[in-house]
Amino acid sequence: MDELKSENAVPLRQATLRDLPSSVEVPRYDRSALTPGIVHIGLGNFHRAHQAWYLHRLMQQGLALDWAIIGAGVRPADAAMRDRLAAQDYLTTLIELDPAGSATEVVGSMIGYVPIEEGNGALIEQMADPAIRIVSMTVTEGGYYLNTGTNAFDVQHPDIVHDATNPDRPRTAFGAIVAALRQRRADGTGPFTLQCCDNLQGNGDVMRQTVVGLARLSDPDLASWIDESCSFPNAMVDCIVPATGDAERELVRSIGVGDAAPVTHENFRQWVIEDKFCAGRPPWEEVGVTITDLVHDYETMKLRILNGGHQLIGNPGELLSVRTISDCMSDPEIGAFFRKVASTEIVPHVHPVPGMTPLEYVDLIDRRFSNPRIVDTTRRVAFDGSSKRASQLHGSLRDGLAAGTPIDGLALADAMWARMCLGKREDGSEIAPNDPNWDTLTVAAQAAVDDPGAWLSQRGIYGDLADAPRFAEAFAAQMARIDTVGVRGALRAYLDG
User: Fold this and answer.
1) Cα–Cα dist 389/410, whole Å
2) What Pfam families does the database record attribute to this sequence (predicted)?
3) What span, in angstroms and rounded, lies between the C-alpha atoms of 497 and 485?
4) Which of 72, 123, 419, 464 has a CA that sits 20 to 30 A from residue 330's CA?
């Protein structure tokens, strides 16, 4: 039956929604009546399964019909996504995968996608439209032009230098934002809210630093206006959303839908936002979004336990040739390693939030990571450790050093990361480059084989952690243990300790 559905899959279009299988939930609202209110830059799987879904749920209730999303990107690769989505009227099929069952729905809250072009003129024009009241963004942790280690705005990055000297033909999303705000101020149409949806501590503050910092390089008066007039709410976003490949495309076809860009996701979402919107917002609280001033506590819990947990298991998973995160959790050493480090070295430094203690959150993440229907690869999770480490693991390490609590598991996690950056698994197979700074990391990893301090001397990653004797000693000891008994032996020694 599934093979027949796959062969007869209905191409996803607005005109074919009524022809889709009855098991697929489709938009009940009139999409032709939607008007834009949000430009989202960096329109990947996560945004479509998370922010776009929340807006879709509002629209299903007849709300927020003037807040539809216009997608945007600034990389040449974004053009391919635009073409795929345009061909299906910007509709996306979401497939929820859970051990208890699955559900499929088509999300229709996106109604357009700005052309990708040099100089970003179309993007600037779209954001300058008075109808746009929120510009949101998912460009990954490494996309905010921060100096690694200090997290200060990198004014010397070539992209930033270009945009500061060519403000009318910017290369970056932030340059386009500054140009659009310049036009809005001149036209008297007012500011918009800038909403970061990436996994960064104080992500709204980071967004403010980058946008205002870039504006200041070319127009200090405009920078002051942006700083005073625009709002940058901090937020925490959460949903595990794997990458889409052939298996996911075949899955959606087996359901009876011909979607070139489907998205699979877990049966869990969370969005916590500060209520700081200078030009209004959709009533997100009506569909389960938490509006609170306690965003910092929520984001600390999530970044350190969920995202930090990904870092704990992704590296040994790669080294031991364990392909997916759920496989890592069923591995007797890797799964136990996550629970012990999270419970004894991370939880002591995390505050509870309403309705959830840190240990209860560890249990929740254990269940979510263990979902075998979510095919989230260790390679995806282990990507870009040089950007993720500081916000996701090193905060716990710093707190542990300050409080005198255990740090051996965190030291082992970094030792396994260093070993992964040598580019070889324990079975001898090659680990392809998996970090924007891979070449630099590989050189440091090779030097650390004989001198562990060479790895910690990467000041851009470790900062003053390199000067902490207790961490340096623990890291060196774990490196030596990996050399002696291998990754699995080092994990067992930690678990038995």
Assistant:
1) 11
2) Mannitol_dh (PF01232), Mannitol_dh_C (PF08125)
3) 15
4) 419
**What is the chain's Cα-based Rg?**
23
Assess whether 48 and 87 both reside in one domain: yes
**Distance between CA atoms of 185 and 191, rounded to whole angstroms?**
7
Last residue of a domain, one of 262, 292, 322: 292
Q: Are residues 256 and 321 in the same domain?
A: no
Q: Are residues 234 and 89 in the same domain?
A: yes
> What average pLDDT values come out for the chain (497 residues) when binned by 10 residues?
69 98 97 98 96 98 98 94 97 96 96 97 98 96 85 94 97 98 97 96 96 98 98 97 94 96 97 98 98 95 97 97 98 98 98 96 98 94 92 95 98 98 97 96 97 95 93 98 98 96
CA–CA distance, 280 with 426 (Å, rounded to integer): 53
For residues 304 and 201, give the distance between their C-alpha atoms in angstroms, rounded to a whole number.
Answer: 10
Identify whether residues 286 and 305 lie together within a single domain.
no
Taking the C-alpha atoms of residue 58 and residue 285, their distance in angstroms, rounded to an integer, is 10
Structure-derived torsion over alpha carbons of residues 233, 236, 240, 244, reported in degrees to the nearest 10: 20
Distance CA 37, CA 111 (A): 11
The domain of 46 spans 2-292
Are residues 167 and 314 both part of a single domain? no
